[in-house]
DNA sequence: GCTGAAACTCATACGGC
DNA sequence: GCCGTATGAGTTTCAGC
């Protein structure tokens, strides 16, 4: 897969699809100023090249019993490859972990945990996350409210 | 809008749509064990009640020139309503800010900034973010790699 | 509330420019 | 590489259970 060069039409199509991932080709075509055929062809190109990784419904986290988020930074007891791989495998298997980044600096990982509420978060923290392989210490930060985000670049204009 | 109660079929439909937001109704119907008609009706209900906030294409951040992320925590000089509102309005207008949370604790906001690279991040930081209304101090943390996430709950099983 | 069929909209392929 | 048309797939509506 090669990183294809995108022209203004491609970027316009991507913007429309970020705004509405189920938008019909005909509607996208009208908004970007093209007929449906080239839009469909560009779409297949964007999907095949990996620029569009997929499509997803933005489901309200509260409706799925995951309306309460906590940011957790994790430090491992060792930072060798195998230790990272084991911890990451554990994280991948926890549905409560909705986001996870390997960091530079004092903390090794930054995670966002989504559960139904504080009691459920506590149960996950002490029952599962602290027992994940290699975990040395954990710090939790509780957000009050999401100001922006959810879909990458959704509110960009 | 009332928080509707969801049954197992609704949750199955939501799971399918998180996995593939453009999945045809007929395909969803087959996977959840229903005929297309009730799936279409439930879908409209889920959209109308806000359980499905929308649909979006998962666009590769690198392809849009935003492949480099930095986490930034921000402290304001005051925490009264008007100060928060002004800062949040500024944040909403910055396309580089892809995620923003109002936090409890020592720092007021946690942001994820996405730019093309470190020089572009520096330009955004000193030229725009530090000049946003009310900003007192900023701390940056640079991630090495995203381990999990992107679409809420995508890797949940 | 689900099923199945009919009407309609939308997506894909092809010929022409 | 785009436009316009034709064909087939997918969506939506409605009668019946």
UniProtKB/TrEMBL annotation, chains A, B:
Gene3D superfamilies for the chain: 3.30.70.920, Winged helix-like DNA-binding domain superfamily/Winged helix DNA-binding domain
Keyword NADP: no
One function term, GO molecular function aspect: sequence-specific DNA binding
CDD domains: HTH_ARSR
Keyword line: DNA-binding, Transcription, Transcription regulation
Annotated HTH asnC-type domain residues: 6-67
GO biological process, alphabetically ordered: regulation of DNA-templated transcription; response to amino acid
CC per GO annotation: cytosol
Transcription keyword on record: yes
Superkingdom field: Bacteria
Entries under InterPro entries matching the protein: ArsR-like_HTH, AsnC-type_HTH_dom, Dimeric_a/b-barrel, Tscrpt_reg_AsnC-like, Tscrpt_reg_AsnC/Lrp_C, Tscrpt_reg_HTH_AsnC-type_CS, WH-like_DNA-bd_sf, WH_DNA-bd_sf
Segments forming a coiled coil: none
Xref: Pfam families: AsnC_trans_reg, HTH_24
PANTHER family membership: LEUCINE-RESPONSIVE REGULATORY PROTEIN, TRANSCRIPTIONAL REGULATOR AZLB
Protein name, entry field: Transcriptional regulator, AsnC family
Organism in which the protein naturally occurs: Albimonas pacifica
